[in-house]
Amino acid sequence: MPLDFIPAVGSADFTEAQERLLTLANRLGRERFAPRAAQWDREASFPFANYDDLREAGLLALCVPREFGGEGADFATYCMVGAEIGRFCGATALTYNMHICSTMWTGMLADGIAMTPEQRAEHEARRELHFARVVKDGAIYAQPFSEGSAAAAGHAPFGTSARKVEGGWVLNGRKIFASLSGAADYYGILCTEECADHSPDMRDTLYIAVPGKAEGLTVTGEWDPMGMRGTVSRTLLLKDVFVADQEQLMPRGVYYKAAQTWPAMFFTLSPTYLGVAQAAYDFTVQYLRGEVPGQPPVKRRMYPTKQIAVAQMRIQLENMRSIFWRVIHEACASPGKDARMRLYAAHYSVMEGANDIARLAIRTCGGQSMLKDLPLERLYRDSRCGALMLPWTAELILDRMGRETLYESGERDE
Ligand SMILES: Cc1cc2nc3c(=O)[nH]c(=O)nc-3n(C[C@H](O)[C@H](O)[C@H](O)COP(=O)(O)OP(=O)(O)OC[C@H]3O[C@@H](n4cnc5c(N)ncnc54)[C@H](O)[C@@H]3O)c2cc1C
């Protein structure tokens, strides 16, 4: 059945499964997430009701492989669905991304990373437990790796440490901006193994699930940010937190390899912001046509300046959609330089473009449109947050692209 709406990624030749999943995301978004979005934003509270809906719809298991009872969606399909959710509630889409990554990294992505037969057997056994929690219990995973140091930018080992003890690990450290804090059942913590024979090294990164109820784990700090307020990204403190061996989400050394070989794993933050851009565009069209529900039917579409601004917004949106569409389909392990540059460019274009479109939307719709009973001012605040996300902030992408364009791997100036 063809779609009866245009998804945030644009119209395309979708598979049947993609049509079904996009329809589900659009219905949930339109009927449930959009009407609730102002509440999470006003209260800076977590969208629990949306997660109940995602769980009931089976969308928490979107990227759990089929053989483990999930939907088995691939990278591109997740990105399409994420964008559709972001169109209706940015905070839900962004936190959903954190959850999805914990299943995608251990699922499809890990399948493409070289492992020894022992590592593969260990991974197979442990991920079964982790997937069952999502599929059978509807568990939610968070993805806190930021620490306020160079680690989250990928330039230094994580300061959070893991010491090997009998039957498991003892974790100590601090994570900032932990979206879903207090709401997640498990936190996928990136930390550095303490090795007696050498100083901390990024190759010793471990990826371990810490249960939300673990002794020694506390959520602290205020949460009253400008945008993406429903993500509730507070600080996690880990003080001698013991976790059993089975909580390891990837075997030793594999996260480092994954981060090196699968750069698109960091692109998954983009779909949320393509959705936010689409929402700002949708609102502008509706507003200028005088069709926003609950508002007087005042038309503003007859002014040439409005028509030009909408055209500019559409051009930017189409550019974003095009590069987004291309990179989500070519995402793979070890992409060539050309594809890697395009991936960076796509991420930058979406993160900066979302804010540009939201900015134009407010300028074009005018003063009444930014009152808090309408969604535009929230979209504007949310849209600014994408470029701040490590490891690929808009600035760091410019850094990487410039350097990697002018220097081939290993090249130096004397
Ligand atoms: C709404 C929201 C939700 C978030 N959710 C999560 C989450 O769930 N999990 C998580 O791990 N993180 C999350 N983050 C955190 C995010 O990924 C960044 O870690 C955070 O925004 C960094 O803020 P900072 O002030 O510590 O940045 P800093 O590290 O102080 O950097 C400031 C700026 O300097 C630049 N910069 C940083 N490092 C370097 C460098 N080495 N060289 C040159 N320039 C550099 C960057 O452009 C950066 O924007 C979230 C952030 C936001 C805003």
CATH superfamily of the largest domain: Butyryl-CoA Dehydrogenase, subunit A, domain 3
Shape: globular
CATH topology type of the largest domain: Butyryl-CoA Dehydrogenase, subunit A, domain 3
User: Could you state the oligomeric state of the chains shown?
Assistant: single chain
**Which CATH-level-2 architecture of the largest domain?**
Up-down Bundle
Poorly predicted regions: none
Can you summarize this structure?
The chain is built from eleven helices and seven strands. It is α/β, with parallel strands linked by helices.
Outline the structure in words.
The chain has 414 residues and is an alpha/beta fold. The chain has three domains: 124 residues, Acyl-CoA dehydrogenase/oxidase, N-terminal domain (Butyryl-Coa Dehydrogenase, subunit A, domain 1); 116 residues, Beta Barrel (Butyryl-CoA Dehydrogenase, subunit A, domain 2), CATH 2.40.110.10; 143 residues, Up-down Bundle (Butyryl-CoA Dehydrogenase, subunit A, domain 3). Helices cover 47% and strands 12% of the residues. Strands 1, 2, 3, 4, 5, 6 and 7 form a seven-stranded mixed sheet that branches. Strand 2 and strand 3 form a beta hairpin. Helix 7 packs parallel to helix 9 and helix 8 packs antiparallel against helix 9. The protein starts with 15 loop residues before the first helix and ends in an 8-residue tail after the last helix. The model has no long low-confidence stretch (mean pLDDT 96). It binds flavin-adenine dinucleotide (FAD). The site of flavin-adenine dinucleotide has 23 residues, from strand 3 and helix 11. Keywords: FAD, Flavoprotein. Belongs to the acyl-CoA dehydrogenase family. GO terms for molecular function: acyl-CoA dehydrogenase activity; flavin adenine dinucleotide binding. It comes from Cupriavidus basilensis. Its cofactor is FAD.
